[in-house]
Amino acid sequence: MLEAKTEIIAVGSELLLGQIVNSNAQFLSKQLAEIGINVYYHTVVGDNAERLKQAIKTAQERANIIIFTGGLGPTKDDLTKETIADVLGKKLVTNEEALANIQDFFDKTKRVMSENNKKQAIVLEDAEVLKNETGMAPGMGVEVDGRFYILLPGPPSEMKPMFTNYGQQFLIDKLGIQDKIISRVLRYFGIGESKLETDIEDIIDAQTNPTIAPLASNDEVTLRLTAKHTDEAEAMKLLDEMEEKINARVGEYCYGYEQTTIMGELKKLLHEKNLTIAAAESLTGGLFSEQLTAIEGASQIFKGSIICYTNEVKEQLLKVSSGTLENEGAVSAACATEMADNIREITGSDIGISFTGVAGPDSLERHPVGTVFIGISMTDRETEVHEINWAGSRNAVRTRTVKFGCHYVMQMLK
Amino acid sequence: MLEAKTEIIAVGSELLLGQIVNSNAQFLSKQLAEIGINVYYHTVVGDNAERLKQAIKTAQERANIIIFTGGLGPTKDDLTKETIADVLGKKLVTNEEALANIQDFFDKTKRVMSENNKKQAIVLEDAEVLKNETGMAPGMGVEVDGRFYILLPGPPSEMKPMFTNYGQQFLIDKLGIQDKIISRVLRYFGIGESKLETDIEDIIDAQTNPTIAPLASNDEVTLRLTAKHTDEAEAMKLLDEMEEKINARVGEYCYGYEQTTIMGELKKLLHEKNLTIAAAESLTGGLFSEQLTAIEGASQIFKGSIICYTNEVKEQLLKVSSGTLENEGAVSAACATEMADNIREITGSDIGISFTGVAGPDSLERHPVGTVFIGISMTDRETEVHEINWAGSRNAVRTRTVKFGCHYVMQMLK
């Protein structure tokens, strides 16, 4: 197999003006890494034929795979394929299928196609046309003098599906890549990154296939397992075995796979057990309820919440006793307990969860910023209260509080 | 003045693996555009001395300002300054001030400085040292053979303040930039982009100084005015005059400046008028209250809310009459009115706002997705209800609903 040296060239003056970030290069780099193709350079150049030409020549000296994004549209500024054709000494020809696709696009939106749109159906001769399923301009893949050139549109909504569905396969075929590479992300909560890495240190040190990549962010740790095998089923088996080995040690903290969230897993669990939840939110100001209802499928598990930002609302609407508020304060285990119990009863839900504490920037009732009480009330069980103290911004405190709330409810239900 | 041709070189293998996006290049491009400096290329290269050396040589052929980010840290991978020193034939020397700063950093965090950290205090001879106020590794600016080289650290939290506070001034001084360039962003809500542009078309067409750049996103339109003048006060005057000219036509839709939000402006107005607000949230599920309390300073204007996701909660907790729910339905002007009136009374607030409607994905009570009623109740005024119908995802419907809610309250208060 050819030793891949890839350069990704993004064409567009809007990148050089800082109006947008080059997220296309990041996406492509990630996708290429997953099939074992090295990326050596990213380049950004403006909508300028002369500078683009020079950039292509520079890339030819140092790369054997050159991927372009942007400049395939219908306007005068779009000059990527014309410039590449010029450098490679290739003709441009109209692709009938692409033209029909563009015509179809206008028909569907009931607009008349202007003449300049036909320009988008023009492709490099001998190129493999990469279909644009979410837009008009087709992409291309072509081999010239032992180098591979791939042309992709600039808008990420068009570029991403085109590369995933067609561009990647073009490279796999042309480079004769045999291995299937499959990844799986395991998500952990309630365990710190260093503790997790220490617990499985010998497994990480001995990794070969699958590889193990830990990543910590937003109070969570993920492990990305990546297995390589010519047979997809075998690669999957390697992942299964590694997952089992790791989770024999730290499985109690593993809450899900891939892009799931703790809130998403809590919702799944509530649906499975056919339970409803309601919240009494003070410092979180509605964040728990908002996240619970942000994604569809909340109406069977959620009736409503009370946001009680003042003691007045805690007392009158949520029926927290004035004695508790006077003697213990709003930021107290006693208040969290009453809030959780009462919201459950008031709404007739199976579970009541409460959040009270100090989000900051000022301290409250002599508690420092970051003091939080989370109460969880369930039928026929003693109400649990978790006191937590953490550092961080107002936003971080609120977000962590909601995550830990979900985590504690799941622990009680399991 | 030298005609600036800038290349920004980001050094770091994590960029080529797609683990992070090159947001540094975007930030620097924007900052450079604001002082009138052209950026012609962005390059990303890995932590590899040979390839970095070649990238520097390529940049020397096509640029006269070369800005590096990344590779100034203490580890073996960090080789930016060593490689540049090599290409430029410059010595590396220890900078005592930088060394003291690093020592100070360790003292403050009560850790012992390991030997490799001293490497960070080494700088190119003859370079102007750019102070790192948020980290350890200092930056550098140096002129060699008519080209300007600027070295900045990779972490955005260090790079951004260093460039804004020192790097930009280095360029302004060295290039003899006389003009001050000042921007002002005007924010509009409740008017579409095309309507706004049509209303001020002749002003946009005649723009010279200030320039006018419209941008639409998330139901808002912004106009960025940028004025240039050797005298800052004169540049400011140009902005004032242009703002007045534009807002003589579309001022009723202009709600604020720069990075403000509609929620932020509503909060400001409530504080000014010393008023409190409470919400009854159905389809928005807590989003209004969450946004209201996300940023500090809500406790004087906000007592609490009821999230009433089911008719049961609307009836029992929010006291919406069963007649209204049976005859008109939960998605109705009548229900929105009662919700707004009742939440105001229950919480003893000056203003009650209600949100009821269909967020999707399924229709409700035979109303299509996107049907929304917003109710606003104030003391001594007739309760207003706004019916809106819009297309979009669940998330888009909820977000727009909250924005329009803020907008309507502000209109009533003005």
TrEMBL record, chains A, B:
Gene3D superfamilies cross-referenced by the UniProt entry: 3.30.70.2860, CinA-like, MoaB/Mog-like domain
Pfam families: CinA (PF02464), CinA_KH (PF18146), MoCF_biosynth (PF00994)
SUPFAM superfamilies, alphabetized: CinA-like (SSF142433), Molybdenum cofactor biosynthesis proteins (SSF53218)
Location of the MoaB/Mog domain: 7-174
Family listed: Belongs to the CinA family.
Designated name of the protein: Putative competence-damage inducible protein
PANTHER family with a match to the protein in the record: NICOTINAMIDE-NUCLEOTIDE AMIDOHYDROLASE PNCC, NMN AMIDOHYDROLASE-LIKE PROTEIN YFAY
